[in-house]
Structures are given as C-alpha cells and as structure tokens.
C-alpha cells in the first residue's frame, strides 16, 4: 500500500502528464517533463519505492578499469568539488556514459543516510530503470540540470536533490556525468542554482584536463574573449596536427565552430588565418581574428614538443627502477612504435597492466585511447559483446542504440588484453582475423568496420604449453608474440624499497593521512617473498594504513602472513629493536633510502664496516637476493 507522500506524488505525475499539453506553462521544467514522458513510455511505476540497481563487485571493478583514464584525470576535480559542497552535506558522484557510478565522495557522517537513499558507489542510474533522476536525465538531455525532489519520477527518490552536468571528450563523445546530490534540502528548486553552476564549472574543468591529456604532442590553441582568462580558464581549446587537421576540440570550441560555420571544419586554416596563427606564439596572450567577421579572441598558441619520441618516465619521484624492467620498457616502446605486438608474461600480480600502460604512455600513440580487457574477469558469455560490440537489436536485451566494442573504442590507440590465455578458442579465431585484416564486425552488423589498433597482451600462463595441448591457437600465439617480455616477481626486484615507498605514499594519500613505516615493519616487507607480488604489496599496505595507530606502521599492523617469518611476533620485533647498534644501522639506512655510502658517512664508519655490521645483524639490503 502506498504511503500518503507516494500517493500524492503518483497523483501529481499522472495529472501533469495527462494535462501538460493544455497548460500554458508546465509545473516542472521542460527537460523534466520530457523525462517524465520517457519514463512513462518505459512503463515505470511512479509509486515504486525500490532503490537503484547496484553493480556487483566484479562488474564494478571491470567498469572502473575500463574508465581508468577518465577516473584518473577527473579525480582531483571531483575531490575539489566535494571540498566546496561537503559542508552543506552534499555528496559527489562521477558516472560513466552508461550511468554507472564509478567514483563517489561523501563524508562519513552522512554516508549511511546517502546509502539508504540510493547514493553509493556502483549504483546504476539509467532512465529506463530509474526514471527521471540527475544522472539519467543529463545522459538523455546532454546538458546541465537539477532534478529536485519531486522532479524525480519514482517516489523512491523524491527526497533527493541532484544537480548534474555532462562531461564530453575532445571528439564530442559523452564521457560521463558529474553529479552533486543531497538527502535533505529546501523545497524551492532555486536553492540549487549555485550548486548546479559549481557542477557545470567542474565538469568543464574535467573536459579541459582530458583535452590537454589527449592533445599532447599536437599544436594547441587556448582562447578566451578576455585576455586574463586565456591560461587559467580558457573558453575554447583547439588542437591540430602538423598538417593543420583539426584533431580535438573542447565542447565550447565545437559549439563556437558550429555556430559560425554550420559544421565543424576539418582544417585550422578554415577557422584562423595561418599567418596570424604563426604570430601567436608562447608569449603573452594576444588578439586573433577569425575568418570572416568573427570578433577577436585572445589566444595563446603552444607548439608540440620537439622530440619525436619522448624518453619514458617509468620511475616516479626519482625512484630507481629495476634495471631489467627499465630495459624491457625501453625495448617494448621501440618495438611497439614499429607496429609489433607485445606479449608480457609474469606471475599474477607482477604489474603487467602497469607495464602495459607505461609502454602506451611512452609510445607514439600516447595521445590515443588505452583500452583494457581482463579476459579472466568477466563471464565468457560477455567477452564477445564487450570486445566486438553489437548492432542495435542484435539480441534480446541489447541496447536500442547498440554498443561500440572495445576494439572500436581503442581505434587509433592501444588494446590491452590481460590474461589472454583465458580467452575462449572461438573468440581467439575472431581476434586473429581482426589482427590480420584490421577490420571488426560487431555482433548483428551487416558491414565490417576498419580499426587501427596496436595490441599488448599479458598472461601468467605458459602459452607455448597451451598451444601444445590445443587450448590456445598456434597462429594467434605467434601473432601476439612479436616481442615477449618476462616481468620479474617482486621478491627478486632490486627496486623493492622504492616500490614499497611509492605504494605507501599512494595508499596514505588515499586515506587522507600521512603514514610512515617503522624500521622493523620495513624489514618485514623487505624480507617477505611476496607470492602475490605488487598486488599483494598494495593490499598489505592498504590494510596497514587502515589499522595502524599514531601514523607509523608497526610489524603488528601488517597482515599475519607477513609476520610469519623471522619477525613472527611483536616480541621478536621488540627484541631486535632493543639492540642499539642494529637499530642505529636501520635508522641510518632508512633515513638515506638504503644507500650505503651516505648511511656509512652519517654513522662515521666506512662502507666496508657498514656492510660487515649489516651482515652481523642479519639485515637484508634491498636488491640482495635470498638464497632460496
């Protein structure tokens, strides 16, 4: 039985939909009324109190991995926006182009109330299932708007206020939706005007950041009607290649060109005089006249970097990378830029996807998409549609608009197939044809479509043995293995210390508090054999950051399996730490990042003496391999 509030809402929605055409002015804004009509066509019940659909953890992880670049670029602005609205008890959601919430910021004090109201990570806001709501209505209208309280179609959400804005990529495709929502707010919709403006501004900042990332290596023109905003808040962004072909535009520049020319020109010379463009260098912002009678814009022109192939940066914050991985990376970039496929092998958790992303970012295709698919992470029945996409109406339950597969999404860039050894044989045949012919046929499509992709594959399996037993195609094995690289396990890497420090910094930053490592805890980490490799290291440090007290991780804060060796208990660690000479050695080595020379100098001893005392006290130096 409906509550009084729900019944009143159902009556209101029904009355408005029945009589809207005869009213001089609808009681709700036009985009809301349009969405109500679509919701009715979807045969949704406005009295329903059921919460939104929530993704299972496997699918959520896959969606987040697929949108990794978007999430990484948007993360800082999402956090900044939350800082602006958190004091008024708003939460911030970032959804992908299908309406799936992939990033979510909320204060712990209101987290429970938000979750009960349907605001949480993994919620799926599609208009076909949830009706009129902030994310879904923006996906349909592609413009910023507020869905305030009883603007929602379903009674489950009439307590919420949601202000949202679309985020577009440089080609004009929808990347996702940025949304700010609250469980409680004044009844007057006008109370959300400022919030909607903040959301729209943040969405624009994310678009511009995505543009600058995608346009790296090309000519870039920043433009604004006023000279003081050209660098900090440019209205228009244009990017073109050495031949003058327009490659990327932010949404404002795309609208500007359509208003002036009726369509988007293909060449920058159709928009601005080339001689005038050349005069607009990297100096102060200066006026530039457009073709025809267009008013002048203040602009700054940035030339592409001179070096044709950048030196890959593979070790952040000055950390030294294991020489074997650094050499693998150098060679992988060279062969990839010569259109040879790359096969990465190594134990589970050894960092194969991180390596693949580094290869892509250092390659000539760094400004193009990096699209990843974990062949072992999603059901076999879904891999084909995910990889190849499908045409409208290809099968029961298919989207009415069809779906672009990952092969098409990676066009011009890199497709990373993780755990390629888990790909079914039938799909191996289809993939081989794509790699051989450069064409893809979506499910149910009548025509094949050309794609330009480079493939990086990874596996922990012995593919040669799988070929011998008939579970992996021999021709595909040789097709994807143009260059093969074996990543060493974490236990044998010489950069373990640097990696531990880097992962700890990232996890500490994620939890919002500075966290350090005690010497005894660090020794536990350095002495452990890491069967789960880098992934296990990250999970261990994430756990330690969550449970440690006082901002310093002690051995007792580490997962139990890490304390199973010679530092099995807190008493053992305390006994070792009680030796003043041993502790002084550890303190000096940790302070000087385990560099023997500076550590010995700070202790007033020679390097030979330092090494002798290190051996006496059973301290293992990073990079020294255990004899086992």
Automatic annotation (TrEMBL):
Give the Sigma-54 factor interaction domain ranges: 322-546
> Care to name a GO molecular-function term for this sequence?
sequence-specific DNA binding
For this protein, the record's CDD domains field holds: AAA, PAS
Read off the PANTHER family from this record.
TRANSCRIPTIONAL REGULATORY PROTEIN
| Keywords annotated in UniProt | ATP-binding, DNA-binding, Nucleotide-binding, Transcription, Transcription regulation
Q: Which Pfam families match?
A: AAA_lid_14, GAF, HTH_8, Sigma54_activat
Descriptive protein name: Sigma-54-dependent Fis family transcriptional regulator
Q: Record's Gene3D superfamilies? A: 1.10.8.60, 3.30.450.40, Homeodomain-like, P-loop containing nucleotide triphosphate hydrolases
Entry's Gene Ontology BP terms: regulation of DNA-templated transcription
């Amino acid at each position: 039985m409906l509550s009084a509030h729900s019944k009143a809402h159902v009556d209101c929605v029904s009355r408005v939909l029945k009589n809207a055409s005869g009213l001089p002015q609808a009681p709700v804004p036009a985009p809301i009324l349009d969405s109500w009509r679509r919701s009715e066509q979807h045969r949704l019940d406005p009295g329903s109190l059921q919460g939104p659909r929530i993704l299972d953890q496997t699918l959520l992880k896959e969606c987040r991995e697929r949108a990794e670049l978007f999430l990484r670029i948007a993360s800082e602005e999402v956090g900044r926006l939350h800082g602006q609205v958190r004091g008024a008890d708003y939460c911030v959601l970032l959804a992908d182009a299908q309406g799936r919430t992939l990033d979510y910021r909320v204060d712990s004090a209101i987290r429970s109330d938000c979750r009960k109201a349907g605001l949480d990570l993994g919620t799926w806001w599609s208009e076909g299932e949830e009706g009129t709501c902030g994310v879904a209505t923006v996906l349909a209208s592609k413009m910023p708007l507020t869905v305030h309280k009883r603007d929602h179609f379903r009674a489950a959400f009439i307590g919420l206020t949601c202000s949202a804005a679309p985020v577009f990529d440089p080609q004009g495709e929808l990347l996702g939706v940025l949304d700010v929502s609250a469980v409680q707010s004044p009844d007057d919709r006008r109370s959300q005007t400022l919030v909607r403006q903040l959301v729209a501004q943040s969405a624009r900042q994310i678009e511009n950041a995505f543009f600058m990332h995608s346009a790296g290596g090309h000519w870039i023109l920043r433009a604004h009607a006023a000279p003081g905003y050209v660098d900090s808040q440019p209205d228009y962004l244009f990017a073109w290649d050495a031949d003058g072909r327009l490659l990327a535009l932010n949404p404002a520049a795309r609208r500007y060109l359509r208003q002036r020319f009726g369509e988007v020109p293909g060449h920058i010379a159709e928009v601005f005089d080339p001689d005038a463009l050349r005069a607009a260098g990297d100096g102060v912002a200066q006026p530039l006249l457009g073709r025809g009678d267009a008013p002048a814009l203040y602009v700054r022109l940035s030339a592409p970097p001179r070096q044709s192939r950048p030196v890959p940066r593979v070790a952040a914050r000055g950390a030294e990378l294991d020489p074997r991985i650094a050499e693998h990376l150098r060679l992988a970039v060279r062969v990839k830029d010569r259109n040879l496929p790359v096969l990465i092998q190594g134990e589970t958790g050894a960092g194969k996807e991180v390596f693949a992303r580094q290869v892509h970012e250092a390659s000539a295709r760094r400004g193009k998409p990096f699209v990843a698919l974990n062949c072992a992470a999603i059901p076999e029945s879904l891999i084909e549609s995910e990889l190849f996409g499908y045409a409208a109406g290809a099968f029961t339950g298919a989207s009415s608009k069809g779906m672009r597969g990952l092969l098409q999404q990676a066009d011009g860039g890199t497709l990373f197939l993780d755990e390629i050894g888990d790909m079914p044989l039938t799909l191996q045949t289809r993939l081989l044809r794509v790699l051989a012919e450069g064409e893809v046929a979506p499910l149910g499509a009548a025509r094949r479509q050309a794609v330009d992709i480079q493939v990086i594959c990874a596996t922990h399996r012995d593919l040669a043995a799988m070929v011998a037993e008939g579970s992996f195609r021999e021709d595909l094995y040789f097709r994807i293995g143009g260059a093969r690289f074996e990543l060493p396990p974490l236990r044998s890497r010489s950069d373990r210390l640097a990696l531990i420090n880097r992962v700890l910094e990232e996890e500490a930053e994620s939890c919002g508090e500075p966290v350090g490592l005690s010497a005894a805890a660090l020794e536990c980490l350095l002495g452990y054999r890491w069967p789960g490799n880098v992934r296990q290291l990250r999970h261990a440090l994430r756990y330690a950051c969550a449970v440690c007290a006082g901002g310093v991780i002690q051995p007792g804060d580490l997962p139990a399996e890490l304390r199973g060796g010679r530092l099995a208990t807190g008493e053992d660690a305390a006994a070792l730490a009680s030796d003043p000479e041993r502790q002084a050695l550890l303190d000096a080595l940790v302070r000087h990042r385990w560099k023997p020379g500076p550590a010995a100098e700070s202790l007033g001893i020679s390097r030979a003496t330092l090494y002798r005392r290190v051996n006496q006290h059973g301290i293992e130096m990073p990079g020294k391999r255990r004899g086992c």
